Amino acid sequence: MTTQPSSEAAEPIEAVAARFEVHDPALQHDPHPVYARLRAERPVAHSDMHGGHHILSRYDDVLAVLQDPARFSSSGVLIPSWEFPVGGPQIPLEIDGEDHRLYRVALASLFSPAQIAPLEPLMRTTARRLLAAISAKGGGEMISEYASPLAAETFLHTFDMTRDVLPDLLAYKDLLIRGGGERRDDLAAGSPAIVGLFQEQLERRRAEGATGPDAMSQLLRARFAGRPLTDDEIVNISVVIMLASLDTTSAALGNILAFLVNHPDHRRQLTQDPALIPGAVEELLRYEGMISNGRLVTEKATVGGVELSPGERVMLLYASTGRDERKYDDPETVQFERANIRHLTFGAGPHRCLGMHLARLTLRVGIEELHGVTTDYRLAPGSEPEWALGHVRGLLSLELTF
Length: 402
What we know:
48% helix, single chain
């Protein structure tokens, strides 16, 4: 794994871009100076890493790709690429065209506002239990003790699964998403247990008649072009939902907590006027965007004045787009009442995130419940947030005192 030298600001942008990759340790704490240089100097850059790929950092360029699935395939959305260990492409993330549309139709009811509304009281109960344990000892590690279990238990509520399975799910998720290119072989050993867990849940719901509101029962009732989903499809979809719930949402909540602890004036705005929280969630999803994924060029295309050829790959830096000076006025200033944010953290086009309503609810509840317990939280003495940058950028640890 490469590292960026401390003098990178003086280096030609071509050299910085050539070794760019999302697991670079030197980018972990703050990739935004590099993103800013890419936007300003080489908005469609080229990295030599992982077989070579283009890097897109400006809002309009990334949006154009997301809205053009005919020329930019979602097949293999991760760079470095990897084979989804559950079997086949990730459904529906790595599916294109009419099949993708039909899968979206089959899954749409899972994450509708009406479907997720009953989860809110369960989320609040979870948040209060977690915060009570943290508060009783005067603070704690807010990623492993709050952000991660809150998002993870919300997933368990969605599937009506018990908490005893959580350690195995979290361990598998960390291998899959945080492991970079170095620990992929470990997935072979862990995959059968995860597949078996969802297969067992599937069989249980099938035996019960699949009449309940839980996600597995709904998947058993769903139809793809008039036919039931196969067991393999249901397990595949379940794992994709698990990864989104256990990683992306918890990363977003951790990033928001880190911002609020370091910006007490912004925190005070929310404690004095909680009605600002929904807008704050959107603004911080813009400012602390955490996603990077890719597309495969299938037809000749020109983006940002650069010609792309079939077979080439492009990395979309969603997190960079949230601070694009061409899209936002004063993007480095967080404004909770900013209008028309339209960030790309949930994507755009036909692959826009199915679970965005659930994610927004989890983030809002996470902030509200924390502020119901304390409005005076600080970094623990001697501690610093520990970041991990990969396909999802988030915190590994955030030690706070209450």
